Design the sequence.
């Protein structure tokens, strides 16, 4: 069976007229040089030789629509044959909210671009200004409207824990972004990288990054907010590798950050179901694919529940959906077990 995976082509820091306080695009993209059209063709051919089809060719890392126009078109032309052939479903790119206009969007669409992601980061103009973003939230709203009008999929990217931000302002941003109805979301907790203004602020004690636990607690709430609104979060946390390892100084970077957040959601769901119940043994039913998340990394969720007096075991139940939880007192589950039902447990 063919594998479906996006091809990521990084265009580091090109086209961006600003350097945000947190930004070291070379570290984030893991590359020092700009890709050539041949690099796009080579990446597509390697993916096809590995049996990977159906995904998108994605241009990330910089402000794609703000690069030199001829260079941008050369990359699109290199990708387009693979879209026409049906080997890949479309082209995705990321850019700044103030680098979008109807003419450029029309050009992108003519080359097979199916989604544009905006590095919106925050809906608070004060926070945008403090972090050197160089655009306003009004420009984000205008860009969203133009992308919709062009018939292109809309993605939004937000950051948490930015300089000057609080968990409350991050939640307000998420609620406002939900109102913009993007097709996808990405959430990136802020980390301190070498060679950034944020590193200088951190060294002077003017910026205190979130801990992994603090970021996971907040991002779990954001993830649940977007999912409840029907908006998929296609990335949560920075990619491991790609040069970030060498540039990392401080902040909530974890190789399995999304799993941490999803584990927090399950702890919250289970706690809500057991609230008001007496201490004792309980069986928690979740979707079979969600057992490890419900248990928590290193069984932290089970330990937290036990500390509240609920001795829980988690079992997979195909009748339970993702981010759904059912609980039963242990004595009831034993009687069910005598009927011969066998389910995977942890």
Sequence:
């Amino acid at each position: 069976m063919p594998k479906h995976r996006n091809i990521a082509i990084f265009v580091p820091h090109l086209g961006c007229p600003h350097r945000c306080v947190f930004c070291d695009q070379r570290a984030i993209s893991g590359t020092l040089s700009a890709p050539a059209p041949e690099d796009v063709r080579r990446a597509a051919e390697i993916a096809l030789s590995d049996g990977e089809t159906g995904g998108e060719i994605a241009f990330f890392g910089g402000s794609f629509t703000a690069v030199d126009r001829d260079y941008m078109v050369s990359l699109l032309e290199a990708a387009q044959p693979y879209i026409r052939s049906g080997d890949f479903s479309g082209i995705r790119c990321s850019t700044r909210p103030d680098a979008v206009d109807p003419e450029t969007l029309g050009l992108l669409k003519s080359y097979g671009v199916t989604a544009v992601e905006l590095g919106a980061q925050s809906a608070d103009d004060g926070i945008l200004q403090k972090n050197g973003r160089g655009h306003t939230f009004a420009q984000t709203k205008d860009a969203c409207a133009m992308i919709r009008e062009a018939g292109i999929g809309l993605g939004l990217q937000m950051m948490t824990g930015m300089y000057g931000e609080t968990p409350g302002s991050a939640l307000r941003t998420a609620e406002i972004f939900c109102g913009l109805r993007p097709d996808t979301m990405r959430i990136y907790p802020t980390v301190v990288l070498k060679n950034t203004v944020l590193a200088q602020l951190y060294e002077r004690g003017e910026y205190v990054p979130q801990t992994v636990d603090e970021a996971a607690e907040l991002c779990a709430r954001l993830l649940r907010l977007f999912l409840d609104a029907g908006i998929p979060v296609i990335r949560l946390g920075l990619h491991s590798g790609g040069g970030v390892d060498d540039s990392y100084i401080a902040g909530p970077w974890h190789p399995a950050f999304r799993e941490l957040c999803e584990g927090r959601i399950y702890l919250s769901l289970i706690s809500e179901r057991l609230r008001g119940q007496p201490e004792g043994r309980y069986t928690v039913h979740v979707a079979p694919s969600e057992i490890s998340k419900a248990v928590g990394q290193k069984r932290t969720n089970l330990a937290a529940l036990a500390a509240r007096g609920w001795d829980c075991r988690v079992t997979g139940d195909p009748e339970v959906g993702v981010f759904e939880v059912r609980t039963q007192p242990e004595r009831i589950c034993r009687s069910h077990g005598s009927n011969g039902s066998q389910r995977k447990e942890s």
In short: The domain at 7-255 is CATH 3.20.20.70 (TIM Barrel).
